[in-house]
Amino acid sequence: MTRSLKLNRKTKNYIAGYLFISPVVIGVLVFTLTPVLLSLYFGFTKYDNINPPEWIGFQNYEKMFHDEVFLHSLKITCKYAVVSVGLNMVLSFAFALLMNSDVKGISVYRVLLYLPCVVPGLASAMIWKDLFNPTAAGRINQIITSLGFKPYPFLFHPDTAWNSMIIMSLWGLAGGMLMWLAGFKSVPTALYEVAAIEGAKWYHRLWHITIPMISPIIFYKLVNSVIGALQAFGASYLMTGGGPLHATNFMVLNIYNTGLTEMNMGYACAQSWILFIMIFALTAIVFKTGGWVYYGEEQ
Amino acid sequence: MKKSKAYKVVVYTVLSILTVIFIYPFFNMIMLSLMSYQEIKQFPPLWLPSQFHFENYKNILGAFGYTEGGDPFVWTFLKNTLFVMVFKTVGLILSCTLCAYGFAKINFPGKNVIFFCILATIMIPNSVTMIPLFTLYKNFGWLDTLNPLWIPVWFGGGAMNIFMLRQFMKTIPNTLLESAYLDGAGHLRCYWSIIMPNIKPMIFMLFLTSITAAWGDFFQPMIYINSKVKWTVALAVRNMVSSTDASGGVGAGALNVQMATCVIMSLVPLITFAAGQKNFVENVTITGIKG
Prior knowledge:
The complex is a heterodimer. Chain A has 14 helices and two strands.
């Protein structure tokens, strides 16, 4: 009697559990798993959204290796991920160190420097489109020409458009600052006190205490930023449409244009799988090589 | 540790230079939004307006055109955006807290496997699902409606959110729930009257991020929506970015009207940032260190 009652309660508990998580299970099945499988399938087909998908085997994948536009987008995306993540990690770390200084009014500076991160992408695209005015009348070019240099063409020249994207991405540097600051706060002050008694210089403290102690955050940020940078899209879509001469045609933009503008959906899906594999492989590598991460004793 | 005077001078100087550089684009946006059409056309460019032209803000109404009834389209866009914001945010909060409760507080077979599978979906880039979702929504008859912008969120509300909430809910002692069970309360009851009040700061953060995201997202509306009566504000502004200056300082292409729009676009995230500033830092601390 009691036993069946207990079992009954346990089963009821199971049912409750499944019911509670059912929204996300349905959500993942319908809005993630189904599209992912469809995407894999479309990648092997010729599909234009009007006629049903037509199986063509590996043709899409073979085509990619001869497709200059795709190969170029792959190249600049990887370049962008390396350079922008590298710059952002180092500079935002330096930023946070500075913001961590113990001087009066620092919180005001923190808020002011964080403001650019609050501006929506749409607005910052318009703001920078104006700042990047390629003629001598542009605001940044005013400064450049007054220093005696030639006006910088920014987004209007294939050689400079990519650099301009990097410059613009640096405006959001402070976005990474918050997590560094939280990390700095998590380091026990006792460690610094001991170091101070031992006569350690600030760079010793930085290298031997701060960096190892916040290595989980470095790790987390590295993975996230690389994944994010590989999927760069908004700025180039809004400001250059991928040009000039595909100079800012990042992978996601190329996928979008191939799939939803040219309606070459099968080919676009195949390209998106290349991006997926890249992200998956990178994440796996970073996790495998994560031995330098210090997780503290309790974990 | 005592700080020398030289240290302070260096820190303040660097901070001030950085602040000027980083704030300038923001400041420039506001100044341009207040300049007259003649002033934005001047060479060399003006840094400050001679007087504040607030009419640029009024011109935003006209810049997006008028409906057949003669009302500015902006009101329609705002109405659509508000609709998405409300339904998206309610769905997001309800669905991801419910799921997180299931994962944090109920034991059932296969829980960890399911949780891991759901967490793994974080790795899938949006571009992989972009095209199949388009065909899927086409089959649902959702194209050119606001449905794709809010209905999917009701199913889970994002794996990352569930993960964060689960971590947070785990820190709430089970003894609190057990005494409630003994009093005959079911899980739904515990979820609503014990867990929800205890995670208010997290819910507030979800509320703010969801509102900001719904306000600024132009990508999804751009893919799924065509008819102008269904546009959201962000989609309308997206079209503004590429519009050319044709109507002499009042149309969507005029820089001063564009910048006025940018200021308005920035207001919503600014307000949510101001409201959530304290919470935000705490939240980062929690997820950054325990996550």
